[in-house]
Queue: 2 jobs
Job 1
Amino acid sequence: MLVVMNVHATQEQLERVCEEIRQAGLSPHPIPGSQRTAVGITGDKGAIDPERLQQLPGVVKVIRVTDPYKLVGREFKPDETVIELNGMNIGGERLVVMAGPCAVESREQLMEAAHAVKEAGATVLRGGAFKPRTSPYNFQGLGESGLKILAQAREETGLMIVTETIDPENVTLVEAYADILQVGARNMQNFSLLKRVGKSKRPVLLKRGISATLDEFLMAAEYVMSEGNYNVILCERGVRTFNNYTRFTMDLSTIPEVKRVSHLPIIVDPSHATGKRDMVIPMARAAIAAGADGIMVEVHPNPDEALSDGYQSLTPESFAQLMVEMRALSAALGRQL
Amino acid sequence: MLVVMNVHATQEQLERVCEEIRQAGLSPHPIPGSQRTAVGITGDKGAIDPERLQQLPGVVKVIRVTDPYKLVGREFKPDETVIELNGMNIGGERLVVMAGPCAVESREQLMEAAHAVKEAGATVLRGGAFKPRTSPYNFQGLGESGLKILAQAREETGLMIVTETIDPENVTLVEAYADILQVGARNMQNFSLLKRVGKSKRPVLLKRGISATLDEFLMAAEYVMSEGNYNVILCERGVRTFNNYTRFTMDLSTIPEVKRVSHLPIIVDPSHATGKRDMVIPMARAAIAAGADGIMVEVHPNPDEALSDGYQSLTPESFAQLMVEMRALSAALGRQL
Amino acid sequence: MLVVMNVHATQEQLERVCEEIRQAGLSPHPIPGSQRTAVGITGDKGAIDPERLQQLPGVVKVIRVTDPYKLVGREFKPDETVIELNGMNIGGERLVVMAGPCAVESREQLMEAAHAVKEAGATVLRGGAFKPRTSPYNFQGLGESGLKILAQAREETGLMIVTETIDPENVTLVEAYADILQVGARNMQNFSLLKRVGKSKRPVLLKRGISATLDEFLMAAEYVMSEGNYNVILCERGVRTFNNYTRFTMDLSTIPEVKRVSHLPIIVDPSHATGKRDMVIPMARAAIAAGADGIMVEVHPNPDEALSDGYQSLTPESFAQLMVEMRALSAALGRQL
Amino acid sequence: MLVVMNVHATQEQLERVCEEIRQAGLSPHPIPGSQRTAVGITGDKGAIDPERLQQLPGVVKVIRVTDPYKLVGREFKPDETVIELNGMNIGGERLVVMAGPCAVESREQLMEAAHAVKEAGATVLRGGAFKPRTSPYNFQGLGESGLKILAQAREETGLMIVTETIDPENVTLVEAYADILQVGARNMQNFSLLKRVGKSKRPVLLKRGISATLDEFLMAAEYVMSEGNYNVILCERGVRTFNNYTRFTMDLSTIPEVKRVSHLPIIVDPSHATGKRDMVIPMARAAIAAGADGIMVEVHPNPDEALSDGYQSLTPESFAQLMVEMRALSAALGRQL
């Protein structure tokens, strides 16, 4: 931490800042400049609140030097996290493809989707049984019967299941059926939910909040990890900007940045990010080219009939086409699909 | 709803769009133009998903004409909602001032703050017992013992209590102590929580999410109201933008807009919006001048010692100064404090 | 400036950083911490590019401590700038009101508007003769004949004239007629234009770019001042965010922040910020309550006939109403109108 | 255009709206609904200002149905624009790579960069002779002597030259030396400059403004084209958002969207978008995978010595590596480099 003093700060004000730092069990290091003085802070025993320093007389600003996260950071764990699940790896060389309908609507719909994505090469089946919707009047999901249909699809196809869980109480139900627990973008800072999935044995797919900074995103993962669950998969799904031709703005530079500061795997969801079927394939390609560890896309056997987000769902045919392109791309990029 | 066809759309494509509309129990009204055709949709019995239309061949875009909300809208209830609580009104002519520390830290701290804000003229005491924090390593609140201290402060001062509730299970505990249930910005789309407070008898203070559109904000209130709780107080507390000299960007134009489209009262929280003590007074003045029904500000007996958000808390002295300015302003604006 | 080293940085890497700093004529101050070392930089003779340091091996980040601006800063000039113009002050105790149509359309239209705003109490007449428009097919202004009409209005009413200038060549023409040169939001970083108005004897009204940070806004003013023209009036007119119910989002917290870091006067334009007639009055009130030194609003004798931005123009009657409210407010705030 | 009436609108108000539409030479089509009436507008002879309608009594909102641009649109010209320049194509199957230093600093520096990028496979050399800088105290470019150095580099290497022009007067100078005129992001709505380059015979590289909507971006191109210059290359270079780990947020979904609505070629500048050397290669790959027609990257023979934006420049070695990866990628994507 560095405390920057006002050009007119008095010696008494400087001394008070140093005293506060000492009382917190840390060491102050005044650096007198030609115009103003700054005070560096060192020590690992104590802790001090930057905002407390900020309001002391004579202080212009306080600059935090270290990152707020620990367990998610690459300084904590230099090697990339690879999550093993039923003999499949998420993270590392191999790309993961999660596909399926936005919501489970019926046994027929899900089975058809499951067989189609399995055949084209996906390894994880997505599908919501509990759907957080902006309007209370929209379809909210089939609930537990949706989870049962997902479990049947796993049995029939061997695909693993990822599905969303929406509150702490709900986790117990969802983890009884799912292989991967999804925390949605709107719940990225639902800390009660994060703590609860942090106690689960299931890996957690954590979607980035629509206006989360990277620090906030990583701190949400830190909540899960700090409860003991180290198997977190990050998912970029677009952030809110002034752009109005996509539902959200996909922020692909988050991928190399996450790779630099964290060891966690990161995948991308181009369906929700763009909200437009025609953009899913080019943006899925772009995500992989930027270094993502996989994608999550919506596929519906009959998108025109979908009860939720049909407009952004691929048909089974275009999903098969996407997989062909992904294979060519992953080869060119030295990765495996 | 209006469906805009491509300039090259065929008669068959147009007919298919009309057929879909009819099948949904609604009436299509084709409007042939010089270049392209649009189709208006009318009827109140059926319902149709705009995204379903959007993907039909020949359709360029679908434009939603009506607002998504019902109960929160002024077309549903033309008169302003005034919430009566212990003989006090929220909404209407009189401005409400909610003040107190960010977090309850101790009996002494809260009592000192409570007496100070009471004396200066506040009628509601704020103070968090459960604190949603970005980092799992930061102070998370005193929990139930914090709620008990709040209840004691009510007994001693006659102030009403507003405090945050963080998940559905937690509501039962909080509503046993608080007069007003606060749903924080991070939980604005925690729909499980919204439904639960919608079943409570306590009024709900709903904070705007940091990147919520006005529609999303109002739809969150709609969730609460659709469960039967019509006493919702909206609270603008800043949105996330590129600005970096305030923590968030206070969006005061939301006030006249909410007044135009909704009947619900709206207050403003300049402490969290700006994150800077020096800005609280000018921005509180601005909020009232823009037409807000009240303010919520942080006051701490000793801000330098605060465990949470101390840097943005007013001292009791500056809060008293704020109240003096608010009185002058409200008189000039024809309102009462 | 502070250089933060990697936790694994070697002694050689640290030494190289110090050497670079010394070669730039400055002094390095290593601050060894428990985990990592930081290097403070002091000295006033030399200068070093932070980006050059940032790429040295072992460096994590470089933190700039001082502000980039000089002439606009309060550390350079502690007293508020008050611009005198024909015996009127801009800045200081008195509020300035600039009003008039978006564009000069005809002699009749402008004269009618000029008399109306004069009578209600405005002291500066606005009106565009050169209009930057998003579309090349929209009305682009009357050009020099518009300037002549403005000069006639000054003669008839005694109002001062503010009008926009759009490129360096155009300045010579505009400064022959106008009292204040306006630089529009789209040209805030048109540096050729800024340098040219910096050589003018006329005060400059500088509008904030729609996505300008405060530093960029102040650096644009610095461009003008660095050419010798110290009479700069800043104007907040909304920034671009995800909000869609106003054209831009008025960022009123910029007012107390500008007052803190700069000595320049700042006014607000609620007409362009909101784009909605109904919001102009509440947001003008809010701006003044936040501490602005004045407002600029659009008034058109017949807004329904306006060739440009009619929807956001006040009628003469509502402008008169605004002035009544402004007088009450300014009295309550201890300012003069 | 569609006019939506209030649920309480009277028959007189409806009639007035229809009358306004008729007076503008267009035809009104009232669509009575169960709750409210909407009025469709058709006709191609007249024109009506949506804002004029918006303020009529009883009108809730006016919805624009058609796009504002003409010449840039795919409905105007269905085939992709391919710009031929010295036997090279920009747009179409082949990808273009523009590379070189941010600013021309000296003959030696530029020649070294030119030979390096030529050898690795670039076909266009970039380098600024006139540099728009946020601070008036920063290096502003070598001016005409910089242009002369660029011309020498063309002679020596056969590379084409793209360089920025900063105001209308300056265009005459720059077009005497450059093959492609660059309009920078800060000048995207400098309409005087757009009109001037619209009269030039040189192709124009138009960078997206940092907060330009897609419509504004395309309307800027429309300005150039409406003056007769149809050779416009669009360039996405990041937009301003709340993200703070990249200088701007690269908005790659703009690529498929531009391809859908316009016939103009679009390239991407990952150097300015990210501001970080380590991100240039992954984001260049992502841009190509998303369908961009080329890239523009900064390469400096000695980035540590660069006078401008050194931190984001690639070394010649990493640029050569980028070209290797681009070749593999373009083969996988069915394009040529």
Job 2
Amino acid sequence: MDKKRVVLAYSGGLDTSIILKWLKLEGYSVVAYIADVGQDDDFAEAERRAKTIGADSVHVCDLQRELVTDYVFPALAGGAIYEGRYLLGTSLARPIIAKRQVEIAFEEGAGCVGHGATGKGNDQVRFELAYAALGPRLEIVAPWKMPKFLEQFQGRRDMIHFAEEHGIEIPVTLEKSFSTDENIMHKSYESGVLEDPMHAPDKDMFTVCVDPTDAPDKVTTIEIEFKDALPIRVKNLEDGHEETDPLALFTYLNEIGGKNGVGRIDIVENRFVGIKSRGVYETPGGTILHVALRDLEGIAMDKEVKRLRDVLAPEYAAIIYNGFWFSPEMEFLSGALKQSQKLIDGVVRLQLYKGNATPVGRYSPSSLYNEELSSMDVAGGFDQTDSRGFIRINSLRLKAHRLIVRTQGQDES
Amino acid sequence: MDKKRVVLAYSGGLDTSIILKWLKLEGYSVVAYIADVGQDDDFAEAERRAKTIGADSVHVCDLQRELVTDYVFPALAGGAIYEGRYLLGTSLARPIIAKRQVEIAFEEGAGCVGHGATGKGNDQVRFELAYAALGPRLEIVAPWKMPKFLEQFQGRRDMIHFAEEHGIEIPVTLEKSFSTDENIMHKSYESGVLEDPMHAPDKDMFTVCVDPTDAPDKVTTIEIEFKDALPIRVKNLEDGHEETDPLALFTYLNEIGGKNGVGRIDIVENRFVGIKSRGVYETPGGTILHVALRDLEGIAMDKEVKRLRDVLAPEYAAIIYNGFWFSPEMEFLSGALKQSQKLIDGVVRLQLYKGNATPVGRYSPSSLYNEELSSMDVAGGFDQTDSRGFIRINSLRLKAHRLIVRTQGQDES
Amino acid sequence: MDKKRVVLAYSGGLDTSIILKWLKLEGYSVVAYIADVGQDDDFAEAERRAKTIGADSVHVCDLQRELVTDYVFPALAGGAIYEGRYLLGTSLARPIIAKRQVEIAFEEGAGCVGHGATGKGNDQVRFELAYAALGPRLEIVAPWKMPKFLEQFQGRRDMIHFAEEHGIEIPVTLEKSFSTDENIMHKSYESGVLEDPMHAPDKDMFTVCVDPTDAPDKVTTIEIEFKDALPIRVKNLEDGHEETDPLALFTYLNEIGGKNGVGRIDIVENRFVGIKSRGVYETPGGTILHVALRDLEGIAMDKEVKRLRDVLAPEYAAIIYNGFWFSPEMEFLSGALKQSQKLIDGVVRLQLYKGNATPVGRYSPSSLYNEELSSMDVAGGFDQTDSRGFIRINSLRLKAHRLIVRTQGQDES
Amino acid sequence: MDKKRVVLAYSGGLDTSIILKWLKLEGYSVVAYIADVGQDDDFAEAERRAKTIGADSVHVCDLQRELVTDYVFPALAGGAIYEGRYLLGTSLARPIIAKRQVEIAFEEGAGCVGHGATGKGNDQVRFELAYAALGPRLEIVAPWKMPKFLEQFQGRRDMIHFAEEHGIEIPVTLEKSFSTDENIMHKSYESGVLEDPMHAPDKDMFTVCVDPTDAPDKVTTIEIEFKDALPIRVKNLEDGHEETDPLALFTYLNEIGGKNGVGRIDIVENRFVGIKSRGVYETPGGTILHVALRDLEGIAMDKEVKRLRDVLAPEYAAIIYNGFWFSPEMEFLSGALKQSQKLIDGVVRLQLYKGNATPVGRYSPSSLYNEELSSMDVAGGFDQTDSRGFIRINSLRLKAHRLIVRTQGQDES
């Protein structure tokens, strides 16, 4: 294991290009690692750039399918939604990126793994906790937390100067007034002008979903079929289009979701490092699946299982958000969640329309729903007089409580 | 306390009219109690009908304001949403109806309280648990669980026959293919044709919200101001219309929400009595407030308080749904919830548009959000190098876990 | 399936003997089912008695080993302790008794299962929920809730009269001033004189444990070895006695625990049916294992897993106490619990002495405990300066909170 | 506010004496702050020593009463017990020490607060989080995390050398093979020889409780009276001795508890900083109150309140253990806990005997316990036939589940 060999998560952008060069100057041998998680990047160009700057070797890894099947789908099945609103798009991509990076470190005999995430965000935590969990003996190189690096690069100007000095191409893209992160599940927008939580984003900031006001005037009805809480088929009832392959299915949901303006949120969230942060997210396919799964659970999940699952759901989401994907507590919760997903089978019919994804029908072969039972007119197996005892027994402690409160003079009734 | 005097929750409809008459025939003196919780009823007509049938006295009580301020607003502030989707419109009206009913029993010296809810639903439970909690010595008369009544009325035909026999007017309204419940917070639709969970409701079933496809093509932007998580002002930014009175404010939110198709859901839920039931709900104002409050919490609520509150939220919603509004556990949770609502102050700006209620801006004078802190460019009070220690200490047990798992041969890496 | 054939849980005592006869008189064919769960009974005598009274067939089933391995050990491993104090001895025996009973019903083609538990206790619930879960189409015959039976037997006198009339032997045992239930895990005492919660039980009531004041004056030190949170070896360090078979091991722990007065509690608990009830329990072996397991978890269980497990523990205990052993929520929790028990391996050394079972040492091969790490003198892998960043980041929101509270004038400091 | 003036938590021991001197040499003006939380120290001697070394001023503050009434009693009432075993003796003293220290900083115009806790323990976290919460603008001086200090003092030898050089008296007490912390609630022992979790502590290490084997051969019976879950009277039934003042009462419980060997535990716990640590604790009075309160809750606390409280209890204990006593989440939980403590009134009778504190009787004027209700012989207000409906309704979803599982072929029965 070479202590001066580092696998660097490399994006092709200015920051990681500078870090690559800086690490070389610091005497590291650098393995540039480019993870394709579905972002809209030119990976060949990034690879070329890494080599130009001096990467000793370059790995470009397509992680899209694995991201969808092993991270996105299980998280959605488990009801993971951070603080009740955020579907964790970035949080889900970080562990898989880190996992492959650690594998490359093992393959390449590198003793270090590095990234270009800043010291104030969630991503540094997610990367580094995953490194620690999977490669506990690897050293972590995080320049944005290294005094020497911070001293050298005190502002954008220092970076541009360094780039020019070392012949690093500076991307010609317009300086954006916010920063983004993208993968197959979502695109996030934050910082810059978005830091004012009262400042609504411009309509032209968004690239994934159309604005609801620009979406088609016609409802698009789709059906999604699930097996054990995993989507196995999507069908567009308007045109009959159907997808069954996980990656194709998810990509298609992103497409029709985005077309109908579904899945955009604008929130202030609590970062793990104790800061509140404003984020805007576009998650079309994930939003549709989230809505459909919760609807299917209504008909197919046992009441008490749902109650307990819902109590655990905030913990589950926080584990993912905070970067503990590879952790004993994740294994613990997964044991229960997998159990709860058995028999979550069936079809949900949804209407997509100008920002809405609305369930309008659902069917489950393993449904606990019984039309006979729930009918108001037909008694079926339900003896109404049973309710009397049920209620009376549930009343006992309420009566006792009232009588005591009265006796103790804390009540006037 | 007269053991043969009953305060009957009376709606003016066929069922409770028959029950009123039947109770008279059974020898009860009957106090008809008509609760105005905002449903679209003719209360004067109902009063007249009760008297005609033979009510010994009639009470018509306007409970709308109290329902909004003491039940709807606190529940929304506490984040009560049953099974993650249902805002509990019916559940919130039941305890206040029962509370006034018990008070009337005390005033009238009646030993019994009665209702016309069936033996399979949630409402019987909610009524009777509230009766037990507030009037533990009152006897409950629930004909739909009394063998004698059930034997006499085995079907609709028996009821019509009885009505005709005793000169009870049969409402001329068309026999509906579903049943509804309405109050100022929502209108519910269930049973009948809706029992098939795959059967989408007809567009013309709905009376509260327009269909999103029929809503205005233009976005309506509003601002809601909160103090301690209670709404104190609503302003329509399009026309400057403003409301500050709780009842007027809530009524106005219902109006603009309904106009924009906001707040309609179609779900299968778990009743307390162990049955799954399909319900369709329209909750325009409640939905807008729910969305706005969760958004304001993002900026104004402490992270750990939010985490704990979210763990308790399913319990809180279930307490309300199951009918335990007046209970020791409700007092217990309320103690914490009230604490969490202090300083949830500020303004949320929302766009209403064809079914969507989307927060696009928020401001809080007591915000824990600090633009400086969360900015990526300005270090402010946040020392990025602190993150190193934070992450390293959070990594410790993950590293230990991996090393043990390896040692124990349960891992190949 | 014979609708008039019932498998009756039969104890040989007066109550179930009367029920057996009464069912015969009601026209049932009766299969007497005698479950040996470790209680101090004469099963041959009970079998003889059942035949004499008229049982059509008799099954005597030794369930002790299965009770220990499939119910007692998993419950202890999962930390099940109702209301923080009761180790669920009776609750654990009910499901296995019911399970075998349902199997016999299937084998014998019986359409009914019956029991002699009263209508106020937990046991009726536990039996009947297990019947429902395992034999949903079986009819339940519970005479103590049948109006006809209740009318016939309004007091002890009626029962004795019926017994004499039908030649049923009345056990000559002295009328006890309390009632008991016993199995291999524990013996319970309740009702009668114990109903006064201020009345301490007489010393001579107890039959399982000696009174701590009568226990040996010398400490007995034992070691228990666990694998995946299950006990696999007990060794008495005083005399070298060792047991490894689950049943023998548990029986031995009962013996030495009882001899040292370990495992007696006297509590008021909340029954599922809403009544508070005073119970006195003796659970020597279970108490020792509970104490030892919690101690081993200290050294071998991950901190966050423990935190989440402890949040779920009251739910787990309530599921068992309330009779939902065979339920979807039990499967849900078990999924997580099993995960948490992996690697809970090692040895706990305990001192038994006059009512105490005190851990004084523990060792785990898969321990997350690292003497180096936790030492105060040796820095090991722990960099003390990391704590600075850790604390500072944890402080951020506390500082923000205080500054806001001050600004809002809710604080004077 | 003087940036170079520090209020130092000073114990009189070698470490904080060296820190005091070192801070003076670093140019600080030092306010020595000696907190009397009940530890067995010579405060006058410590004050003298501080002055000799050069403290600019000295504050000796008796915090015992406030510690008992505002920290220990509320924590016990709330059921705080970390990881199910540790009553948090040290954790409860830290916030009050820090609170007074911050107040002194405000009084003295000091801009800094300092302590001598190491960088690996919980205490540094507890002190510093409390400083941050109460004095968010104060600077924290923690030499054991300062590189300059750490470099100067790399071992015990450096400290002794420094002390000799600067005329600091070195306490003549024997070098102990473990370290301790003491306050009115407990004494803790850790590190040194105790780091081996299999090494049982020597009998002569303990100074608070006698060894159970050395305790009196006779049972001591006491009664404790509570009002709103706070102890208001202790009576020794053997000799009639009675205490009602909070401090006197708690001191007396420590005395008779210690005399009877009650309250000693030996555990491995999870520190907040991710390390497992072995600790031995003696908490006589706290243990007795904990046991008595849980017993009183059995009879006086509502079942559902208890269930929810028990779910929150691990969170409550962790908040205290981790040092978040002054935090929004503490205020949140306290809101609920206070509610749950209303009407927890009554008397608990306990037997103290050779390490045991065993409740044998309890009475509550506000008891929810009703002898009539829970009696097996007298039906009272409980209609046994109500149980039928109660159980049948609870069975519904279990039956549905089984039937579905069968249909789906996942079950053979």
